[in-house]
Amino acid sequence: MNSLSNLLIVDLSRLVPGPLCSHVLSEMGAHVIKIEDEANADYLQYIPPLLKNKKGAMYTYLNRYKRIQKMCLKDSSDHKLLVSLIQKADVLIETFRPGVLKKLGLNPKSLLKMNKQLIIASISGYGAEGILSQKAGHDLNYQGLSGLLKTHKAPKTLWADLVGGGYYAAMSILAALYERTLTKKGRHLDISLTQGLGYLKGLSLFEFQAGEVNQMLDGSLARYRVYTCRDGRQIAFAALEDKFWNAWCQLFNYPEWIDQGGQYPDRDPLIHEKMESVFLGRSYNEWVKLLKNTDFCVTPVLSEDELLDPKQAFKAVSTENLADFKVPSLFLGKKVKVRANWQNVLKKKKIPPLLMKKLLKESKSVAK
Asked: Average pLDDT, stretch 362-368?
């Protein structure tokens, strides 16, 4: 997708939320120049596992379409160049603690006076206002305060960074860009990871206020849960509607489990135990082969190896032709082709000659 191919984004962020936001926009065609402070580099690049480019895997993934430009943000000459770049940019993304951008001589109000169509996205844990605005925090804290944390263990997925920060920020920027087409004006977006993540809690919170919580998707139904096969691999079983559940019951000869209409007999713990036993009776590959041509919402849980190899993933789905089976490009592990026309975008934006020279000479691609 190249819908944003005329956009120039300056990314001052580090770690995951900001870089993911600009990565999402770069996948839509935007050209991103990531500014990294020489004194305070993005230390995500040092977090293992390291790749052949001697950079961390997460860092490489999030920044693979961008140009990386080193600058000293406290150096007056570099500061002037950065300001001149922001003056021509469409979007500025930053993840400093609220108020730090101003201390760096990049007051959002001044930037918007200088570049009236600039979209500034300030991403922080708790937003720029309120008693928590200056508090430090990590993903686990944001998950806890959003109401999503329901476990004694720290989830492996960085839900706040990814959803509350990266994706929500990208949506907010796209909305602001659309608004700009109508008003010809930019704006400063205050994006809170905690608040952004809180939207995922909205449905269940509304149910709670209504006095009843939907229990169909909490694992209490045998028809909607994950089962383990004999070899430890797993199957996602989601025969939620009666027609799917009943088709399963008929296929495997359990007529007494058939739902006559919203009765949900599979809440019975004994049915759960029997279903667990049934799946333990076959290996993962045996289940995949057996279920491949059925249609009651039962699918394999793919491994990382299968996600990276379309041929392996193909074996686990009911598709007649491998050519028809497409794995999302982000999983394929292909060598990334850095956009060759980024220089043309800089020229269209009329980047000052001195800055253009510096970018052409010094900026690098992570993908190489």
From this structure: 79
Compute CA distances 143 → 24, 130, 153, 207, 332, whole Å. Answer: 22, 18, 12, 20, 30
Coil, strand or helix: which one is 188? Answer: strand
**Single pTM value for the model:** 0.86
H/E stretch holding 148 reads none
Superfamily for 224-301? formyl-coa transferase, domain 3 (3.30.1540.10)
CA distance 345 to 5: 8
- Among residues 175, 178, 186, 274, the alpha carbon closest in space to that of 223 is found at 274
Give the residue numbers annotated as catalytic, written as ranges.
161
For residues 243-261, give the mean pLDDT: 95
Q: Exposure string (b/e) for 148-173, b if CB count within 10 Å is 16 or more?
A: bbeeeeeeeebbbbbbbbbbbbbebb
CATH label, 8-201+335-365, candidates 3.20.20.70, 2.40.50.200, 3.40.50.10540, 3.40.50.360: 3.40.50.10540
SS3 235: strand
